[in-house]
Design the sequence.
């Protein structure tokens, strides 16, 4: 009896390539284009000062987006990240008098606490992630206000805590270092550990993941925990950067983070995602603001800073329509 | 399957149906208890003043919440309502102050200031529905686009400036009273009653529930699913526009940065507490009213009894979670 | 040689309803064993007992010489029984390697060793002579057949002794099926036994050594493939050992204009060339084995899907380009899956009943409640729907009563043609008889009915004409005296033949 004939492998190169390119390189290309545009058009665009300030200011958004990316990869969502960051900023400001480590630890702990509540409510009580994290968003916001007594809480300037937000290390802002470390760790977890692969499998097909015997619930719990922890770190940076714990900051961060993740090519239905493109998404959205500032600096036309939201929205629109087109094509094939 | 020949009805089907029928009334029950509590322990509770304060606080949330309830009934969600409120709120003063069309003033300007903003937000809502049905984009993402861009549009229109005005012809919608009751509260009541009636009695309302309950079955029964969905988002947009007008009229000022900020989540919370199923198919407009009133009154009660506003947020979170966990338990 | 797997006297009941009664199965090492039966015959339950998803109530199971009782699918896997499910249960967005190695990743210094995993995946695929696959690419960039191979590679690994394949060919085209068969032969050559579930008889003869037929939870036939004819297989699956159903339908009335005519419908792999017609006042049966394209044909006629080619022509009505147009043309369609395609679970019985009628009860956008109530009450009474009140949510009703409400949903529209897809599935005997009687009465009143049923006797008893589908092609039209269970089964087994073939008696 003859053995199996060689399989006539007929891939669909167009679809495959397009998907990969959009997901992997599209956002980098857009980012590069934007940088080139800025470099060509504005005199000081690539000056160290401007580059460093973009990095410094976007560090905390990058952290929040990273956590969100992991949550979305499992097919979930975390609306609580903004107020978690606010809560963490207050906690770390209050603890900053006891030193940098205490401030850092307090913020992180606050974030992990919210993350734990999310994980329990979503995994154990089986509440939809959207509504569960909506509730913890309110709760975290309330806790932040209570803890802060309804006002900003000044950090201690004696312990060097503010260096976490304002300081430089080897000429690069500390928040950028923290974000870089987090992205490196996130990349390792996603690409080089079973947990990372499980996260993607859960988002891609939860039933299949369960049938494969993967620890689905553990992966889901861990991403919410991670998201909380990263939001906590973002809160620490927020407090250190502004010199105060900000109980009412963080409004809308969650949706900004979702937008960055989606622009970065991560599918909101889960199963596809990358750490690097998420960072690119954050920078892309951040640069839009920066470029608008420069444009106004030229003085030729006066575009208000408010255009940034419009441009970001349009960006998001283009990306989701492209994504849906590709998904539709994949379905037909 | 013949395996289930003569099978007894599935276990769930014997359950008496009154449990979930009480669901919309769960919030009402809690509300009544809370009112009784306040009547007994909160000084000066049973006054017009208290009633009006609470009603005006909750008005915009309820009107937006009604639209949200209909959207959720189709198993969707609309995050853009707050931004649409900002757009309507920014447009209206631009029109009646004559900034948009120079020279336009008087009654025609006032009429246009009511009509145009609502028409614009309805169109933007329809755009949400179009994105969702045409490209099969998840409602969360599709409406996120306008959530982000919408407020930007409002800010760009006004250049981020506060528009202050004193135009009684326009502001009656918020400041006028009829028989001691604020017009906005009456408007809210009308919206709730009409929507509740429409959901029960009109073809559109029944189709909304059918689409949310089982889209495939609805389509096979000839329900124009795409049209229903687009209509529901347009309606949500229009109601957000009305709410935006009320808010700016009440404040005698339009601030594109603040109008409607966070209202989408309040509206979703009110709907969830009111017994509307977030997965679609089961919705109660009146329940949303009770849910919003309950959340508002809890806050009021806590404040009146010396508990800080922030703690009320935590309690609100608890109410939402409790309501939803109960729903999960009750769901078949 | 002792069988690799022996199952004997297996009983399994769900909520008191027996799914398996004294079922048995014996699989020899290195053989390809076909397991076939109609929907609900018990083969899925048998497989689930075999692979540890269900626990048996009684009976014994011996695997590899040892009595076994698997607590869960994992235990069965560890013992060497791999399962390929009908739906490819993989993660399409992820790479081939991940899909093969998820859950048993290779690690090096605590981190994933991608190199080793890629090599392992390549080695596994090479074992089945599957070449030209980049294991780093997403699974979804490969055709279904390759995905199936990956599923097999994952399940089989290097250690399976028995592979259960539940309808692996249902979404493959012919060339892909050939590839799959190559893999099966390779497994066999390696001494691995395969339990193969399929409804396509040609495939069974092409690749299987032995066959076990199940019906009503029992094992009714077990033989070498070379010893049984197609007709015997079909008969064992569908036929009853007692008397043949009596054909009671009235003769069709050819010559009249058909009410609905479908010409050469085709869509995808499931429907390739289907032509049929229905006249008013007649019940037309649409018969075929599972997966022959019956439901897909019904959906095409109703406009729920668009045909790739072919036409549906309804007398004195425009083209059918969607359910709304079909309804306007006087068609009604009770879909196969009540739960996902029929009921709106949270709406009341009344709401569900008037769902399609509602536009006609509406004046200026407002539904005439009184009229809706009247219609609902009338049909609830006429069909004998048992419910506490018309306002009861439909999900609380039994299957039979739900089905009656769905029938009423269309009947209240006063349709000209009803398409009934498995109208009696999963409902109790009493309700079944009531529904069939009702259908006959309606046809007598002039309604055209196109009825799909897996229960051959139902079709034969009720229909005046029967179209038989085989692998997506309408292969036979039986009318009048030609209608008999044997004739239908023969057409299912062989295609075109309209008269019953000689039955072999060994």
Sequence:
């Amino acid at each position: 009896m003859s053995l199996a004939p060689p399989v006539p492998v007929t891939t669909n190169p167009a679809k495959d390539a397009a998907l990969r390119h959009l997901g992997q390189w599209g956002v980098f290309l857009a980012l590069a284009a934007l940088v080139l545009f800025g470099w060509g058009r504005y005199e000081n665009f690539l000056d160290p000062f401007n580059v460093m300030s973009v990095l410094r200011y976007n560090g905390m958004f990058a952290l929040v987006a990273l956590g969100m990316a992991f949550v979305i990869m499992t097919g979930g969502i975390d609306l609580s990240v903004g107020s978690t960051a606010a809560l963490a900023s207050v906690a770390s400001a209050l603890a900053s008098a006891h030193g940098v480590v205490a401030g850092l630890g307090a913020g992180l702990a606050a974030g992990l606490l919210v993350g734990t509540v999310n994980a329990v409510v979503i995994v154990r009580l089986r509440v939809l992630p959207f509504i569960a994290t909506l509730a913890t968003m309110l709760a975290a916001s309330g806790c932040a206000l209570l803890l802060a007594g309804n006002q900003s809480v000044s950090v201690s300037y004696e312990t060097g805590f503010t260096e976490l937000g304002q300081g430089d290390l080897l000429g690069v802002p500390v928040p950028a270092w923290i974000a870089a470390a987090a992205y490196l760790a996130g990349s390792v977890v996603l690409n080089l550990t079973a947990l990372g692969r499980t996260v993607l499998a859960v988002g891609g097909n939860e039933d299949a993941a369960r049938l494969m015997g993967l620890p689905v619930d553990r992966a889901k719990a861990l991403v919410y925990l991670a998201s909380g922890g990263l939001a906590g770190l973002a809160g620490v940076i927020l407090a250190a950067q502004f010199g105060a714990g900000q109980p009412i900051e963080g409004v809308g961060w969650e949706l900004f983070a979702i937008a960055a993740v989606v622009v970065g090519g991560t599918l909101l239905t889960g199963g596809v995602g990358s750490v690097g493109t998420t960072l690119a998404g954050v920078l892309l959205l951040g640069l839009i603001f920066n470029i608008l500032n420069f444009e106004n600096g030229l003085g030729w036309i006066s575009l208000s800073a408010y255009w940034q939201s419009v441009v970001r929205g349009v960006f998001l629109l283009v990306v989701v329509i492209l994504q849906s087109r590709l998904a539709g094509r994949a379905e037909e094939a | 399957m013949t395996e289930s020949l003569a099978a007894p009805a599935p276990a769930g089907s014997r359950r008496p149906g009154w449990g979930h029928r009480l669901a919309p009334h769960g919030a009402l029950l809690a509300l009544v208890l809370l009112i009784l509590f306040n009547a007994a322990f909160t000084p000066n509770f049973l006054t017009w003043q208290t009633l009006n304060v609470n009603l005006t606080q909750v008005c915009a949330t309820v009107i937006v919440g009604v639209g949200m309830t209909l959207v959720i009934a189709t198993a969707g969600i609309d995050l853009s309502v707050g931004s649409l409120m900002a757009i309507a709120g920014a447009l209206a003063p631009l029109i009646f102050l004559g900034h948009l069309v120079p020279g336009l003033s008087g009654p025609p300007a006032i009429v246009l200031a009511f009509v145009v903003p609502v028409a614009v937000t309805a169109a933007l809502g329809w755009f949400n529905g179009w994105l969702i049905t045409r490209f099969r984009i998840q409602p969360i993402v599709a409406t996120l686009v306008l959530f982000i861009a919408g407020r930007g549009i409002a800010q760009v229109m006004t250049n981020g400036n506060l528009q202050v005005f004193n135009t009684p012809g326009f502001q009656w919608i918020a400041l006028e009273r009829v028989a001691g009751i604020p017009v906005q509260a009456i408007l809210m009541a009308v919206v709730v009653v009409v929507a509740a009636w429409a959901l029960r009695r009109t073809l559109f309302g029944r189709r909304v529930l059918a689409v949310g309950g089982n889209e495939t079955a609805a389509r096979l029964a000839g329900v124009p699913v795409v049209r229903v969905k687009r209509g529901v988002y347009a309606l949500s947009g229009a109601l957000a526009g009305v709410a935006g007008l009320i808010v700016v009229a009440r404040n005698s000022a339009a601030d594109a940065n603040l109008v409607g900020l966070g209202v989408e989540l309040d509206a979703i919370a009110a709907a969830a507490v009111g017994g509307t199923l977030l997965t679609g198919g089961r919705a109660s407009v009146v329940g949303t009213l009770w849910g919003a009133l309950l959340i508002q009154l809890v806050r009021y009660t806590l404040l009146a009894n010396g508990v800080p506003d922030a703690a009320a947020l935590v309690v609100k979170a608890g109410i939402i979670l409790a309501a939803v966990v109960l729903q999960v338990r009750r769901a078949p | 040689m002792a069988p690799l797997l022996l199952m004997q006297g297996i009983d399994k009941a769900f909520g008191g309803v027996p799914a398996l009664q004294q079922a048995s199965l014996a699989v020899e090492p290195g053989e390809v064993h076909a397991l076939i039966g109609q929907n609900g015959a018990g083969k899925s339950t048998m497989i689930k007992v075999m692979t540890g998803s269900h626990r048996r109530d009684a009976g014994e199971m011996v695997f590899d010489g040892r009595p076994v009782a698997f607590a869960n699918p994992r235990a069965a896997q560890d013992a060497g029984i791999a399962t390929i499910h009908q739906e490819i249960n993989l993660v399409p967005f992820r790479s081939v390697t991940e899909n093969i190695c998820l859950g048993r990743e290779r690690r090096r210094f605590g981190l994933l060793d991608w190199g080793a995993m890629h090599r392992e995946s390549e080695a596994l695929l090479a074992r089945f002579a599957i070449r030209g696959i980049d294991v780093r690419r997403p699974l979804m960039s490969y055709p279904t057949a390759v995905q199936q191979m990956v599923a097999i590679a994952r399940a089989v690994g290097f250690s399976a002794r028995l592979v259960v394949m539940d309808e692996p060919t249902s979404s493959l085209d012919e060339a892909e099926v050939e590839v799959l068969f190559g893999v099966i032969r390779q497994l066999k050559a390696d001494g691995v036994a395969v339990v193969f579930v399929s409804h396509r008889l040609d495939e069974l003869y092409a690749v299987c050594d032995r066959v076990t037929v199940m019906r009503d939870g029992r094992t009714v036939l077990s033989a070498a493939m070379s010893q049984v004819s197609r007709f015997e297989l079909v008969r064992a699956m569908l036929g009853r050992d007692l008397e043949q159903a009596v054909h009671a339908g009235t003769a069709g009335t050819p010559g009249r204009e058909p009410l609905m005519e479908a010409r050469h419908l085709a869509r995808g792999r499931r429907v390739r060339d289907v032509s049929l017609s229905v006249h008013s006042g007649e019940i037309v049966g649409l018969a075929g084995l599972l997966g022959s394209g019956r439901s897909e044909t019904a959906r095409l006629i109703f406009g729920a899907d668009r045909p790739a080619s072919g036409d549906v022509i309804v007398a004195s009505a425009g083209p059918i380009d969607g359910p709304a147009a079909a309804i306007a043309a006087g068609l009604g369609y009770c879909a196969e899956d009540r739960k996902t395609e029929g009921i709106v679970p949270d709406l009341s019985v009344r709401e569900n009943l008037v769902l399609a009628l509602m536009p006609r009860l509406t004046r200026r956008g407002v539904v005439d409640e009184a009229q809706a109530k009247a219609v609902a009450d009338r049909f609830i009474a006429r069909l004998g729907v048992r419910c506490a009140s018309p306002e009861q949510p439909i999900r609380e009703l039994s299957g039979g009563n739900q089905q009656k409400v769905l029938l009423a949903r269309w009947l209240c529209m006063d349709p000209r043609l009803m398409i009934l897809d498995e109208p009696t599935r999963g409902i109790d005997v009493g309700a079944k008889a009531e529904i069939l009687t009702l259908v006959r009465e309606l046809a007598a009143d002039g309604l055209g009915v196109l009825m799909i049923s897996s229960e051959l006797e139902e079709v034969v008893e009720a229909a005046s004409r029967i179209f038989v589908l085989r692998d997506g092609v309408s292969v036979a039209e039986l009318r009048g005296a030609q209608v008999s269970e044997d004739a239908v089964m023969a057409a299912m087994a062989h295609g075109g033949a309209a008269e019953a073939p000689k039955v072999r008696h060994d």
Q: What stands out?
A: The interface with chain A takes residues 73-74, 85, 89-94, 98, 102-103, 105, 107, 111-112, 114, 128-133, 137-138, 140-143, 145-146, 149, 175, 178-179, 181-183, 185-186, 189 of chain C (CB under 8 Å).
